[in-house]
Amino acid sequence: MSSPVVGIVANPISARDIRRVISYAGGLQITDRANMVLRILAGMAATGIKKTVIMPENAGLRGHLMRALTRSKNAGDGHFPEIRTLDMPVTGDATDTARAARIMREMEVAAIVVLGGDGTHRVVVANCGDIPIAGVSSGTNNAFPESREPTVTGLGVGLAVTGQVPPGIAFTANKRLDVMVNGSLEIALIDVAFVRERFVGSRAIWKTECFHELFVTFGSPGGIGMSSIAGLVAPVSRSDRFGRRIVFESPETASFAVRASIAPGLIAPVGIADVQTLQFDQPITPETRAGSIAFDGEREVTFGKADEVLVTLRDGAFRTIDIEACMAHAADKGCLVEQAEHQTKLKQVKGG
Amino acid sequence: MSATATAVSAQGSDSPFPLEKDDLLSAYRTMKTIREFEDRLHVDFARGDIPGFVHLYAGEEAAATGIMMHLTDEDRIASTHRGHGHCIAKGVSVHEMMGEIYGKVSGACRGKGGSMHIADLSKGMMGANGILGAGAPLACGAALAAKKLGHKGVGISFVGDGASNQGMFLESLNLAGVWELPVIFVVENNGYAESTSVDWAVASDSYVDRANGFGLPGVTVDGTDFFAVHEAAGEMIRRARDGGGPSLLECKMIRFHGHFEGDAQTYRAEGEVEDIRNNRDCIKMFADRVSEAGVISRVETDAVDAEVATLIDSAVEQAKAAPLPDTADLLTDVYVKY
User: Fold this and answer.
1) Average pLDDT, chain A
2) Answer CATH for A176-315 from 2.40.30, 2.160.20, 1.10.287, 2.60.200
3) How far apart are CA A153 and CA A135, in angstroms?
4) Nearest CA in chain B to A60
5) May I ask the CATH architecture of the domain A5-165+322-351?
6) What pTM was estimated for this model as a whole?
7) Could you give the CA distance from residue A109 to residue A105 in angstroms, rounded to a whole number?
8) Residue of B189, B210, B231, B238 for testing the chain A interface, max A β-carbons within 10 Å
9) In this complex, do B16 and A30 lie within 8 Å of one another by their Cβ atoms?
10) What is the mean predicted confidence (pLDDT) over B42-62?
């Protein structure tokens, strides 16, 4: 049986936006990102993954990776799988992420590991079809990817795609929001916010006076970004069979307001006018008649009164790898136990 | 629930943009003036009418305009060899600029500096600069002066992607961080240091990373999007005025012309320039957006176009008619009297 190929998307353009100035958001340096990729590779190699592909970029990430891989090869330590760079042009923006995800889909890679925040994950999901993804939190707003050591993500992905963890445990189906603007589809993994500003500008949204309306697939009280507003008002989990819609109002006139973590380092009062439950496959026309639409925290589309906009919550829209479940299964079944006799010993320890 | 929308919009103006109509028209006029100015130089230089060298800013107008709209004459900028756009956006007279480029006494520097040394201190324009990266310490000096004088002014340093490799630029990032200066470093990344791609010449080419290394926050924006530049620059300048310290803004942009006039641009891909002119023209994108939103009509932008064409015609005509400096002028303006 041939070894499964795993794709890696790490776009250096992520975590570079205005939230560094307005709200002290973090910005991982290129070398840190390269080291994260190396740790993912090390984790995957430990589970038997031999081949990987990575998106190209021109910000120095590849050079750092290749130096490490050459050193490892010279030392003969076998820490890393083979890594091949996709043959595609580099534009230096989010279109690189989209193009790489599409190519990986056509290649039918076993999984895609994504380094980035909500925005990067959204672009990958919009282009990767049914290929499962695993997120590594390294963006500006990280509500979607969980915080976890990349080494362990690499292990979990490797265990999942090599079949050491059954698909029913390894893969999770996720909700998604579809937004049709004049028949053209845009998606969001977590939230769709309608704001009054009718320009994309620097993309981030933080001016609460411009907030109109919010749709979420999930929202946790402990989350960050727009979805945290839903988390504070009416939490909804990733696995709940519904979503939420919230209509905003000025905090001065609203019947109540919440202090929400609308961006890293930025906590602001948000007035709540109405809260509704979203059901699957029921298209909703937003109240907002003109402005811009932010998908997972970033303005992408502007619209006016003449445009037709519909928001629909979808079920089972894309797959993720449940790293925690994979590792739990590995521990339970001894997938990472070194030798057969040690398996017996492990059973005795567990039994004892 | 329609009352919700009313309540929110009542908090601000009805404009869907961060600027009112007059300011949007002003932004369009500035960008169009830069474009017309540069396109005219492109033609006149090829005809041999202009002495020296010129480096044109066409295609990059949104960056200079988006930043400069936040500044007053008290704020000081240090420009680059590609400085015409910065000058115009900072309010320097196009007649004086054209005179300077033609080497005439009607020029901003009495015709002694030419394209790469246009300055107008009354407008806070400390000078275009033929020395790559040399504007950064000047902007630090201006920012230090503003801080000491307590007048809330800021210094802005423009630098290209190539010049950002200069030691002076990196030393200035350090100085700005150490002294917490109200200065913003703008990296105008048009992808080429003369003919060398940034992919070949900049180690770890994230300028944001470089800023972070000196403790400055950095932001990357699409420099062809006026609104992206305007919004990010506005936050950075406000932060600096409020004592928040220095920051770095990388504008990813494109130039329509070569590095210098006469550059055959053999290093650019076939069809690259045509593609960006057709699809990434910052002025066209701006005009489309404000027009689609129903804020500024095509009739109004056409009127600005005509007004700008007349202005540039007049500037060229005046520059050509003006006398050259006299030999006696060689010994004047060498030192400043205090």
Assistant:
1) 93
2) 2.60.200
3) 8
4) B204
5) 3-Layer(aba) Sandwich (3.40)
6) 0.88
7) 6
8) B231
9) no
10) 94
